[in-house]
Design the sequence.
């Protein structure tokens, strides 16, 4: 299961509904794009020391998924598909969706615009 930024935020907040939909016996995947978005949020937070410790523990327990040349190919294909269908989504979310398609993983997210991405299964809570 790949985690979107809102899933990571829900996890940080202790949202038990999210934890019920995440597979318990599998490794959770953290896209580097999501990590960057979350780190940006931490830098703006009043709870930065606490969240810095929390995200360090998360990084140790999740598989960090990085963007590579294959991801770039998936991104280009996906962005063209979304343009042709007139269903744009935010730029960072195209990268997240490209990583999901590349690695054949569902995405835990509350963002319905991911439903426009062909071949991507979105899991919500």
Sequence:
């Amino acid at each position: 299961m790949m985690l979107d930024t809102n899933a990571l935020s829900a996890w940080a907040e202790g949202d038990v509904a999210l934890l019920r939909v995440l597979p318990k016996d599998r490794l959770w995947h953290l896209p580097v794009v999501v990590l960057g978005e979350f780190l940006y949020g931490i830098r703006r937070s009043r709870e930065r020391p606490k969240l810095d410790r929390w995200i360090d523990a998360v990084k140790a327990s999740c598989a960090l998924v990085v963007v590579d040349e294959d991801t770039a190919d998936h991104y280009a294909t996906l962005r063209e598909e979304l343009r042709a269908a007139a269903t744009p989504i935010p730029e960072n979310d195209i990268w997240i969706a490209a990583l999901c398609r590349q690695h054949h993983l569902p995405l835990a997210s509350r963002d319905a615009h991911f439903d426009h991405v062909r071949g991507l299964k979105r899991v919500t809570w």
User: Anything to note?
Assistant: The two ends are 14 Å apart (CA to CA). The chain is about 55% helix and 10% strand. The chain has one domain: 2-119.
